[in-house]
Amino acid sequence: MKVLIPSALRSYTTHGEVEANGATLASVLADLDRRYPGIRFRMIDEQQQIRAHIRFFYASAQLRDLAQPLDANGELIIVQALSGG
């Protein structure tokens, strides 16, 4: 599946668009971490929860559950909020 990477995480991938495999959001993120070590921790915390500043979108819907099933032909969009003032 195509995964769109936000600029803040491109230090891991060096690309804005990468490929990943998996039948659920959790397995796609695990595959991304296998390919780009450390990237998953920037999105998922120690309690296996999506970090507050990260959003995942698939088929125009926000994903809130790591067990969410995904189609291999889809597109996962990762959005990272910026903060500051």
UniProtKB/TrEMBL annotation:
Q: Which organism is it from?
A: Candidatus Accumulibacter phosphatis
Q: Which PANTHER family match?
A: SULFUR CARRIER PROTEIN CYSO (PTHR38031:SF1), SULFUR CARRIER PROTEIN SLR0821-RELATED (PTHR38031)
Question: Which Pfam families does UniProt cross-reference here?
Answer: ThiS
Recorded hits in InterPro entries, A to Z, give: Beta-grasp_dom_sf, Mopterin_synth/thiamin_S_b, Sulfur_Carrier/Prot_Modifier, ThiS/MoaD-like
Instruction: Kindly provide the name given to this protein in its UniProt entry.
Output: MoaD/ThiS family protein
